[in-house]
Amino acid sequence: MQRGTGDWQRARELFGGARRVTALTGAGVSTSAGIPDFRGPNGVWTKNPAAQRLTDIDSYVADPRVREQAWRNRAEHPAWHAEPSAAHRAFVDLDRSGRLRALLTQNIDELHQRAGLDPDKVLELHGTIFQVVCLDCGAVGPMAATLERVAAGESDPPCRSCGGILKSATVSFGQSLDPDVIRTAQRAALDCDLFLAAGTSLTVHPAAGLAELAVKAGAELIICNAEPTPYDELAAAVLRDPLDEVLPGLVGAPLVEPTRPLHTWGDPSTWS
Fold it and tell me: Which position among 77, 88, 112, 126 bears the catalytic label?
């Protein structure tokens, strides 16, 4: 499959003919907003491999020192001050055109919503840093209130309802995604004529598998990512350029008549 200038033209043609687009976004969409990714050349884990322990649920539960460091990191997370980028705003424009089926995001920074995207169109696969949850009783509350406790001297604040362990309402390694969230994401992948994967390495499952699911159901796949992904060979087009340039360019592609009918495979929970 040819890559390069031909891919850009092909991607624009596909986008112009798409009437129902499901997008999957990852950390690369937010890097220009000042939020580093994990595996890239300047990624959090690339610079400090030990930081992976902070996102491992077993380490978090077993070691108070990991939790204390995690709370310090949350207080300093760039998401508190980041502003949406041109990439985020491109999805708002796509939604306003009436063609965005759903936006599935692995990001926890809520920048898609802050850019103006309809929250009902956003499915946060890995949760949000702006809430906390108790691992024991399931109580949920605002992150800001818990960080006020940290600033006041509680290095590892317990749940005020049951005394259990609190963490950000994000999915750590070793935790399962919400089954309802997965089913909703699968339906969105099956109910589109174009699946766009942007700023994601497509290595973390089950999110990564949504791209293949869409292709098997008949959708075209466009991948926009700086580095190669395991699904590049399934894609009709692969673009490596900066997302702040690529995504507005795709969304602004001239509309053309679709070349084939839309499809739907129904609810994956009914499959045998």
Answer: 126
